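User: Design a sequence. Structure:
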């Protein structure tokens, strides 16, 4: 019984993190693709191609972190999306550090840790499907 409670708690925690990350990435992708002028960061004006690419990647990450698990279709795609999100956040951290914006990587680190939790949880401890 205690094992089942821990499994349920882990499953609920994974869903909460998946939904949080998914909504965050969908929102970020939408903003980067359609409302660029409203974003305050200097790098957006300096790198319009990067904004476009990262907007598409953000949308795909947001969808990939929840839809496969939610629909129970090829649920391993959620794990792959989590690993892709880890790679994306490592790239973002490197990008900001190279630009001398190391003080702005806290959010990226949080997102990286959250994606690692999803990859671990959905890959090993609490897979669905």
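Assistant: Done.
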């Amino acid at each position: 019984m205690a094992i089942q409670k821990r499994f349920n708690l882990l499953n609920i925690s994974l869903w909460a993190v998946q939904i949080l990350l998914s909504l965050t990435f969908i929102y970020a992708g939408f903003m980067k693709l359609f409302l660029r002028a409203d974003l305050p960061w200097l790098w957006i004006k300096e790198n319009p191609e990067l904004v476009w690419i990262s907007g598409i990647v953000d949308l795909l990450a947001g969808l990939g972190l929840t839809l496969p698990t939610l629909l129970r279709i090829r649920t391993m795609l959620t794990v792959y999306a989590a690993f892709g999100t880890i790679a994306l956040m490592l790239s973002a951290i490197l990008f900001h550090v190279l630009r001398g914006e190391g003080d702005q990587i806290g959010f990226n680190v949080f997102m990286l840790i959250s994606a690692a939790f999803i990859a671990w949880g959905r890959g090993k401890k609490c897979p669905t499907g």
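The two ends are 22 Å apart (CA to CA). The chain has one domain: 29-125.
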